[in-house]
Amino acid sequence: MVDRPLSPVLVPFEALGRWASRIVVSVGRFGTFMALALATIVSPPFKFRAFVDRIDYIGFRSLLIILLTGAFTGMVLGLQIYMTLSRFGSEAFLGPAVALSLIRELGPVLSALMVTGRAGSALTAEIGIMRITEQIDALTVMALNPFRSLVVPSILAGVVTFPLMTALFDVVGIFGGYLVGVELLGLSQGTYFGEMQTFVDMRDIMTGFWKSLSFGIVVTWVCTYKGFHAGHGAEGVARATTQAVVLSSVLILVWDYFLGTVLP
Amino acid sequence: MIKVEGLTKSFGAQRVLRGVDLEVPDASITVIIGRSGGGKSVFLKHLLGLVRPDGGRVVVDGVDVTTLRGGAMDRVRERYGVVFQGGALFDSLTCAGNVAFPLREKTRLTRAQIAERVATGLARVGLADVGAKYPAEVSGGMRKRVAIARALVTEPAIVFFDEPTTGLDPILVNTIHGLIVELHRRLRFTAVMVSHEIPEIFQIADSVAMLHEGRIVEVGPPDVIQASANPIVQQFIRGEPEART
Lengths: 264, 245
Known about the structure:
The complex is a heterodimer of chains A (264) and B (245). Helices cover 84% and strands 0% of the residues of chain A. Chain A is built from nine helices and no strands. The longest helix of chain A is centred in the middle third of the chain and has 39 residues, at 94-132. Chain A is globular, with a radius of gyration of 23 Å. In chain B, a hairpin with a 2-residue loop joins β4 and β5. Chain B has nine helices and ten strands. The N and C termini of chain B lie far apart (43 Å). Chain B is globular and about 55 Å long.
């Protein structure tokens, strides 16, 4: 059968259809990738050594950036919120305002974005290079499941490290707010922490925990997927790394909004 | 024996394999030659089960591997050794670690037994003293030899070589070829090699198959291929450029 040229009127629709088809295929591949990872998680053996290595790679080596961004985020919050509250004579609420902002929103989101930039990009690049240098094929032909040694340890390490990183970010941020509010601007220490105890409850902490846990899954899922499907050569790895960081960051913000509407 | 029947594969509109038929006898060295982009690597990936064909069969010792998945395919692969074009050594492991890797992951050997097998494997390829070095710290020729040691350490029945001498100087090419022949004589594995090295491969192959535009256009012992009347084969083995139109 000979393809007839498409009417110019229909060309935009064809392009739209192609785009939609690509999106559906991509989503399907993402889903299949996660399904394979989940199937591998529940089937032995578990690569404990690789899991510990990934905790070091994703978590421990991100500590410095988390401490720095946590501290300065808390300090900026302390300063800005104090300025705003002082207009209404409500400086006493600085502690809970800083804590709630950090625990419910900024801690999970900013720490996830930071870990994505530092460890997520490196994860994609590492797996991408393994793909283009046939190291993943080498694992496969040795009858070793590459998901078991590369993907599963990364996703599980994300589940463990993201909440811990977030907790650290929150604590350091709260002390950053304390430094500005109490030590620089003269709010009393008792007011800062006392009001915090009154207004922050377990529900807020659990909201932050569920967010960070889900961000851990999303980031490691996206970054390992992109590395696993990196294109040819250095350009393919570079593109995969950029896509992994951009997609992870967008999904963190979208998922944060979604969770913000469903979690109490 | 490996038997390939009517293997076809397309990527989008590009037809890479158009019905490949080939038989690889046990304990032989079969070399697949052909121009770059002619589908040799894609063909090899079908034998390894890394790519699924659109049509046709790959039968390894009576089992059609194109229908196998998961654990069943892994059981076939446990009999394979593969030397990839770039070596595909794991950057994070030393050369000895790379050779030990399949033994550590797939066998119940003790550390001492693995160390002994690794030392033997590296000595066999003439690299007894590079075990502690990382792949990035050794030359391209050494990396290829470490890759050969890794592929053979499990004593596989079938070994695949994907252009094992690409990018090496003529002396190293002959060294690697000599090594493959020597190891083949000692271990009697079935070897399938993709190579461009003309005329060197005629000295090591039991059988040569020419893959051109997705089909095997000539197959036979080296002397038959060299005397072939097929102009495509003659053009390739003489390295004649294509006539300008």
